[in-house]
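Chain and backbone:
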Amino acid sequence: MFIGHWAPALAIAARPKAPGIGTLFVAAQLVDWAFFGLLLTGVEQMRVTPGISVMNPMDLYHMPYTHSLLGSAVFAAGFAGLIWAVSKDRLAAVLAGTAVLSHWFLDLLVHVPDLTLTGSPPKLGLGLWNHPAIEMPLELGITFGALWLYARARKPSAVRLSVLATALLLLQAVNWFGPVEPTVTAGTSYLAFFAYGLVTLVAWWMGKSAAKTA
């Protein structure tokens, strides 16, 4: 799951009194921001293992802090607390935390068993990465369905909406069909940071043109 992680952010942003779309885009990928940061330090680890799944050769064999349900819940609570401290809006805080926690459940659909409940086995994952005919339309469907809900509710600039939709499609195409590096390096994390940051910036820019909700 890549752009599909932003589907909950878009759906939540369509609600009244939701946090800003840029904030929610950070929330939806927060555990991956953290994972690639911990990957740089060696605290969490992955390796390239061709054939581990049909769609993704990344063997995510050690990520107990970011991709356990407990760890994701801690990140969700922390982010919700931050939003509450800044906004004093309990609903906005809950919605932001929900966006963070959604990441684990969406990963559960597509990952081969590498997720955990508390950081130790059993490892979980329904493995839709082994079924591209299901995973690919599912990811596109939830992402662009949520984008449609957001556009209907918030009526952003059509040009800015199109730029975001194009950025999402291009990055997903690279993720699915682009070349894969044979080894994991620091550049793996930096590339992830660039992709997440770029889409978040475009989403924030689009949100600046959206109508306010009560």
